[in-house]
Amino acid sequence: MPVKAPDRSDATASPNMPKRLTVTKRLAGLPARAHLALGIVALFVVAGLLGPLLVPYDAALTSPVDRLLPPGSRLSDGAVAWLGTDQVGQDILAEVVAGMRTSLTVALVTVAVGGSVGLLLGLLSGYFGGWADGVISRIGDIQLAFPSLLLAILLAGVLGPSMVNVIIALAVTRWVIFARVVRGSAIAVRDREFVDSARVMGASHGRMLLHYILPSCLPPLLVAATVQVGLTMVAEASLSFLGLGVPSSQASWGSTIAEGRDYLASAWWIAAAPGAALALVVVSIGILGDLLRDASDPMTEL
After folding, report:
1. Long-range contacts of residues 122-125, Cβ cutoff 8 Å, at least 24 apart
2. What does residue 62 show for φ and ψ, rounded to 5 degrees?
3. CB 152 within 8 Å of CB 174
């Protein structure tokens, strides 16, 4: 009598073994807070990309007749200021939407530049070790000894107010974070069996870094990049609040909050609207970063 082969699917589905789910299925089963956070971030991204086309913002355009109007007021031209107006009669909604584009641009470019530099240096430090690891690690230790925001203020003050200078200043303070994450992942992988097998087979260093080390470093790097997007938006707003960020001709949440601090008693909406928008999008990005970390680990139960 033929003997039936054991069903591998039954063994895989054993309750004693963790279930491996694809990232797509895990994302589909995320809790409600994840969908809410994702919707908020998507809304802000769309507003940053398309909002200025629908709600134009002109820093040189003022309307003294419409100054300090509360939210929901009707302007002299018949339009409705849903978030009120500031001390020169500009629509706060237009400033918030235009400031979203500034924050989004600075955050994404900063993370891309700082992440690329950190990825390269982290791979070199973690894979080769030796003097390269010592030099890169000591430079990172020296930089981490200074608060990142104070270092950004110093660099932005020396370079001057400009979006490019803000990106440079923030990227200099962010590369070490990505380098530390990539270095730790590279050290954990470089002595694994499959890496040793490739080394014995004569694979070059470039091939081993590209095909064996780099794929293991990307998931934690992606999680770190997601979190750093929100933190970079806060840093950009802080620099603009101090007058060291983007020029006054460009909208920024930080500069709008700075302009409204003198009117907190009479026109609280000037500072409250961009402050609430900044807090909401940063918290949402932080939630997505935590959930992305869980979703990238197939052994983690959500």
Report:
1. 122/178, 122/179, 122/180, 122/181, 122/182, 122/183, 122/185, 122/186, 122/217, 123/182, 123/186, 123/209, 123/213, 123/214, 123/217, 125/179, 125/183, 125/186
2. -125, 160
3. no
The pLDDT value recorded for residue 85 is 92
Look up the pTM and report it.
0.83
Residues of the chain with confidence (pLDDT) below 70:
1-30, 295-302
Structure tokens given for 114:
């700082």
Of 118, 95, 93, 45, residue with least CA distance to 285: 45
**21 near 210, Cβ under 8 Å?**
no
d(Cα 213, Cα 206) in Å, to the nearest integer? 10
CA distance between the termini of the chain: 45
Q: Can you tell me the distance from the alpha carbon of 90 to that of 60, in angstroms, rounded to the nearest whole number?
A: 10
Structure tokens at 123: 């791979």
pLDDT of residue 204: 80
